[in-house]
Structure formats: C-alpha cells, structure tokens
C-alpha cells in the first residue's frame, strides 16, 4: 500500500514540474469546511483537483480594510478584530498562488489588483453600491476565463455581518451561476463568514473550504447552520425560487 502511494506521488510530481513544494498526496474531503491553514491542504492536494477556485485572500490592507463605515459600533468591533488577528496585514506568499493554479482548473480571485497576477481578459467588477467617499465603491476579481469582463451589482450592506470583509451570499450565487457548471467542485481557501459555502450548498455545488481563524470558523459554521435550518422549513418548496432571494430570518439578513 505504502509503495503504491509512493508511485502515485511520483506520478503526480512528474505531471507537475512547476510547483515549488509537494507533500504526500491527501485528497481534500468533499463538502467539508475545515479550520486549517489553506497551505496545509494545498501542498497535499492532487493537481487540477478543483473545478473552480473562488477565493478572497487577504489583500494586505491591514486596518484600512474597515475604516470609513457607517455603523460606528460595528466598525469598532471589526477594527478590534483586525488587531486580534492581523490577518489582513500582508497578502499571501507567492507559493499560495502557485499552489492555487496547480490544484484548480479555473480561478476567480478577489482583490486581483493587489497580487501582480498575469494579464487576463475576463475580470469581474463588483459594484457594491456604497456611496461613502472613504469606502471603495467597487471591488475587482481576477478570473482565468477567456470571456468578456462582467459587472455585478449587489449592495454590500448587511448590518448582521459576522466578518469585517464579509461578501454577500448573492454575490457568490451570481458568480456560480455565470462561471460554474452543475456538479462542479468549488474551492474557497479563505472562507471568512461562510457566504461562499452557503451559496454552494444552495446551488447544489460540491465544495471544500478552509478558514485559519478559530473564531471566524466557529461563527461561519453557526451561520451556515442557521441558513440551512431555514431551508428545511421550506423543503417542499422550490429551492431554485428560494435561492434567488436573500436569506432572511425575521426580516433580517443572515
Ligand atoms: C478577505 S477574508 C475572506 C472573507 C470572505 N470572502 C467572506 O465573504 O466572508 C480572508 C479570510 O482568510 C482567513 N485567512 C488568512 N490566512 C489564511 C490561511 N492561510 N488559510 C486559511 N484562511 C486564512 C482570514 O482569517 C480571513 O477570515
């Protein structure tokens, strides 16, 4: 058995001569969200294992990430959060991008303007409908697709958000609708609040996600659970219809 594994590892190495580090192969468990450093998983993952990576790594903006919001208390909480973990102080190392390209067939990378990625045709502009002069009105995502650039317009304001850079579930729904095919295995290496996972489960996509921070991980797990308890209530109704709506509980966005 051990020698079979060795042969498989050697074959995978032979197929991939352009990565910088390769550990013994471990297949990431499908439809799983783990509290780990994504590099641990990526280094062991077989080549081109994921159909599509939709990722939102730290941009390296530090505390600038949350300055300028409207809800004073929420912003204060999130600035404290960034002091607690400092996760946005630096962007991922070059090895992260090498492993991401090695392990996935296609990629959508938020903050693509910060990472020196190769020249590309299709990028996504997300118009957040934010009209506060100190906050960015739009965000850009780099994609590996050879198709026209897209504009997605979705209000980013969710007073109940659990993460300083939480993206709306609806943003992931639209991205999956446009760029993923039924049954695809989706990778999110930096899950944060869980929005990507909720959109994957709703849309019937397979997924794998990880989040390094224990507090964000636990909060995201709870949020995912809340979203799907609601779904059980509606199990006899058309899920397709539901997925077109924001998930709400007592009139509040989750
Ligand atoms: C920009 S946020 C992601 C926000 C997410 N898109 C959302 O909608 O909530 C980046 C997240 O990556 C996490 N992170 C940073 N380094 C990581 C690593 N090496 N592996 C896994 N997660 C990491 C941070 O804790 C943070 O929650």
Q: Note the main sheet.
A: 8 strands, mixed
Looking at the overall shape, the CATH architecture is 3-Layer(aba) Sandwich
CATH superfamily: Vaccinia Virus protein VP39
The spatial strand order of the largest sheet comes to 1-8-7-2-3-5-4-6
How large is the share of residues in beta strands? 15-25%
Q: Portion of residues in helices?
A: 25-40%
Give the distinct bound molecules.
S-adenosylmethionine
CATH top level label: Alpha Beta
Q: pLDDT under 50 segments (min length 5)?
A: 1-12, 69-74, 232-254
Structural class, please?
A: alpha/beta
- The outline comes out as globular
Overall pLDDT metric: 80
Do you know the CATH topology?
Rossmann fold
Sketch the topology as an H/E string, one letter per element. Answer: HEHEHHEEEEHEHEHHEE
Q: What's the number of structural domains? A: 1
Rg for CA atoms: 19 Å
Counted by DSSP, the helix tally is: 8
Distance between the termini: 47 Å
| Strands, total number | 10
What keyword list fits this structure?
single chain, 254 residues, alpha/beta, Rossmann fold, eight-stranded mixed beta sheet, two-stranded antiparallel ribbon, globular, disordered C terminus, binds S-adenosylmethionine
């Amino acid at each position: 058995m051990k020698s079979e594994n060795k042969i498989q590892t050697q074959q995978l190495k032979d197929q991939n001569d352009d990565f910088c580090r390769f550990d013994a192969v471990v297949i990431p468990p499908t439809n799983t969200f783990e509290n780990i450093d994504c590099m641990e998983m990526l280094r062991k993952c077989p080549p081109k294992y994921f159909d599509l990576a939709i990722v939102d790594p730290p941009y390296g903006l530090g505390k600038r990430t949350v300055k300028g919001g409207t809800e004073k208390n929420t912003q204060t909480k999130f600035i404290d959060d960034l002091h607690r973990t400092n996760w946005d102080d630096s962007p991922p190392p070059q090895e992260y991008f090498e492993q991401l390209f090695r392990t996935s067939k296609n990629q959508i990378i938020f903050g693509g303007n910060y990472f020196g990625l190769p020249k590309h045709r299709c990028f996504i502009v997300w118009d957040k409908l934010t009209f506060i002069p100190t906050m960015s009105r739009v965000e850009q995502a780099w994609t590996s697709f050879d198709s026209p650039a897209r504009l997605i317009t979705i209000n980013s304001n969710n007073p109940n958000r659990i993460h300083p850079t939480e993206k709306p579930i609806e943003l992931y729904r639209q991205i999956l609708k446009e760029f993923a095919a039924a049954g695809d295995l989706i990778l999110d290496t930096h899950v944060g609040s869980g929005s990507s996972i909720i959109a994957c489960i709703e849309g019937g996509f397979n997924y794998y996600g990880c989040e390094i921070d224990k507090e964000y991980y636990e909060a995201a797990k709870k949020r995912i659970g809340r979203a799907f308890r609601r779904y059980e209530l509606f199990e006899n109704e058309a899920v397709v219809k539901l997925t077109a709506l924001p998930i709400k509980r007592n009139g509040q966005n989750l």
